[in-house]
Amino acid sequence: MLEEMHSKFGVLDHVPLGMCLVQRELRILLWNRCLEDWTRIPRKDVLGRPLPELFPHLGSNRFRSRLTEIFAGGPPTIFSSQIHKHIFPCPLPGGAHRVQHTTVTAVRALDGKGYYALFAVQDVSDLTRLVRSAREANAELEAFTYSVSHDLRAPLRSIDGFGEALEEECGPVLSDDGRQYLERLRAAARRMGTLIDDLLHLSRVTTMDMQRGGVDMSRLVEAIGDSLRRTEPSREVDLVVAPNVTAQGDEHLLRVALENLVGNAWKFTGRREAARIEFGLENMGANKVYFVRDNGAGFDMDHANKLFEVFQRLHSASEFEGTGIGLATVQRIIRRHGGKIWGKGKTDKGATMYFTLGEIG
Question: Alpha carbon 203 to chain centroid distance?
Fold first, then answer.
């Protein structure tokens, strides 16, 4: 029977996964070459033997209970460290073990009566090391960013502060050109400070932990609109917010994204007498698509591929202030939520930014 079994499943010797087939009594019927190499246990020494005889931790009632549905033809089950860190201990040089991802699937018996349990063991040791290295690199990068920003802020504050003092003390004796140069100097220092803040924001949204939950998107947009009105009380902007628009995500990050999107719409409608900003939700197939629409300056769709690149701006600083980091920040937030973002616009005819959050489809 074991020879027949290996003949039927012999192709499993050629897959880069550890494969083990057991019957209801947990006797091993198949042990592929990959498991031989990983565990250093030859096939001839395991076939026909009970699995718990080789690996006692797999003889627990808890382990057997999780296989009950499999032997009844139930859905696959994934074993994690809740059962044991390594289903099949596979040593590596230096005494370490492979980090495994193990899935168990029901396979119908050759005679059509009952099912076997097929273990598929994937070695994710390299991936785990890469993830750990990436986290360490992110932590180092964040520390470096904060350090650099602190070191940069001090001289910028000095430049702006001494510039202000110079303007107060010597303003009356400066020529018109001199006062203009001084104002440009102070404006450049303030702009650099804003740029540092935006870069820090971009770094934080990439590395901060996410706390998912229900988010009232309509309420967030209303609050952002109220804040913008307080900064420019003289402006009349028709802000239309669809009611009861909700999402699943990190409320803090989604607020940052909406602040950038609504803030951009507010900025680019600055030259409209009848400015209008709209937030809402559309259904595109199975996906919920959120949008922020305005009737402002718009943009040329030939340059739409630059919208989300850091420091790329589709309008000059003399037209509209900004650092070119806001939409890059939004894109990273949306991607962290498993969604995507894109824009549509027409020069001087407004723009619409669409995004999904990976909730459906």
Answer: 13
302-313 tens-digit pLDDT: 767 777 775 555
Angle among Cα 83, 84, 89 to the nearest 5 degrees reads 145
Cα(193)–Cα(189) distance, rounded to whole angstroms? Answer: 6
Ramachandran quadrant class, 98 (left: phi over 0; alpha: psi -120 to 50; beta: rest): beta
Alpha-carbon span 11 to 278, nearest angstrom: 58
Q: What is the DSSP letter of 27?
A: B
Kind of pairing between the strands at 275-284 and 237-241: parallel
Q: Which of 169, 173, 256 is nearest to 221 (CA)?
A: 256
Place of tokens 């390299």: 126
Backbone phi, psi, residue 214, to 5°: -75, 135
State the DSSP string of 224-290. Answer: HHHHHHHH-TT--EEEEE-TT-EEEEEHHHHHHHHHHHHHHHHHHTTT-TTEEEEEEEEEETTEEEE
Tell me the average pLDDT of the chain: 78
